[in-house]
User: What shape does this take?
Amino acid sequence: MSRDIDYGNLMHTAMRGLIKTVLTDVSESGLPGAHHFFITFNTTHPDAQMADWLIDRYPTEMTIVLQHWFENLDVGDDGFAVTLNFGDAPEPLYVPYDAIKTFVDPSVEFGLRFENADDEDDQDPDEDEVADLDEREETEPHDAEVVSLDSFRKP
Assistant: This one.
C-alpha cells in the first residue's frame, strides 16, 4: 500500500501553529511596536462564532484588524476569541484557526495565505467583504478591494 506525504496539510498546520504562537505572545505582552494584523476568515465555518448581525453583514468571509482596540484576546488550541469594536459596539468573536484564509502583518511585510482547491475554483475577489474596524459609523456592506502586498513594502 502506497501513501503520499501531504505536504500541503503539514504546511498549513505549521503556519496555523505560527499564528497561535504570535497571538499567544500578543495576548500575554500586547502588540509590540507598529505590529498589527489583518486576519481574513471564513464566517461559514461551523465553529466560528459572531453576532447574528455580523453574519448577516459578512455571510462568507470577514477581515478583522487587531491594532488599536481589542480586548479579551484568548488564544486556545483550536482558535482564538477576541472582542472588537464595531461602530462603538464591542462584539466578541471566536475564530477557529482552520477558518483563517489570510494572516498579514503589514508592519514587517509578513503574510500567510491558506488556499485549497475549492478556493481556487470558487473564489471571486469581488464577493469578498471587509470589516473596517477603525470606522466609527455604520456602513453598508461593500465589495472588498484587492490589494497587492507590494503596497505595504517599504522603499
